[in-house]
Amino acid sequence: AVSGGIWASLTAWEGPTIGGAGLLIGSRLFGANGWAVLLSMMMLLLYLWRIPPRQRNSFSRPPMRVLLPIWLGNGALLAWTHRADLARPPLRPMAHNS
Fold first, then answer.
1. How far is CA 79 from CA 20, 29, 33, 87, 93, in A?
2. What is d(CA 55, CA 79) in angstroms, rounded to the nearest whole number?
3. Which of 4, 5, 15, 86 has its CA 20 to 30 A from that of 69?
4. pLDDT given at position 93
5. What would the DSSP string read from start to end of 22-74?
6. What confidence score (pLDDT) does residue 56 get?
7. Is residue 72 packed enough to be buried (19+ CB in 10 Å), middle (13-18) or exposed (0-12)?
């Protein structure tokens, strides 16, 4: 929740939307664990790097030189928090239909 608030304050709708989509995809692929969180952060980084900020009204997200250190710190904290999940392989086993 704190990470979502950080990115909402820095990017308005972009961070929570991209991060939420990443969590949805990650939880479908890996289950609800640290790998889903890491995928979400990687999707956010890719979005911030590839999609230029749009100047709307008085709000425009900060430049990448400001966002990257924040992303690195946030990512490091999330990786540390989910270190037990990240110590295991990312893909959950396929269910067998017997």
1. 17, 18, 11, 10, 22
2. 32
3. 86
4. 54
5. HHHHHHHHH-SSHHHHHHHHHHHHHHHHHSPP--BTTB-PPPHHHHHHHHHHH
6. 58
7. exposed
Alpha carbon of 81 to those of 10, 40, 50, 78: distances in Å?
A: 22, 15, 27, 5
Neighbours of 60 (CB within 10 A): 13
| Widest CA span in the chain | 59
- Tens of pLDDT along 12-69? 889 999 999 999 999 999 888 899 999 999 999 999 999 887 765 557 788 899 999 9
- Measured distance CA(97)–CA(36) in Å, rounded: 25
* pLDDT given for residue 91 in this prediction: 73
Q: Tokens for 8?
A: 């909402």
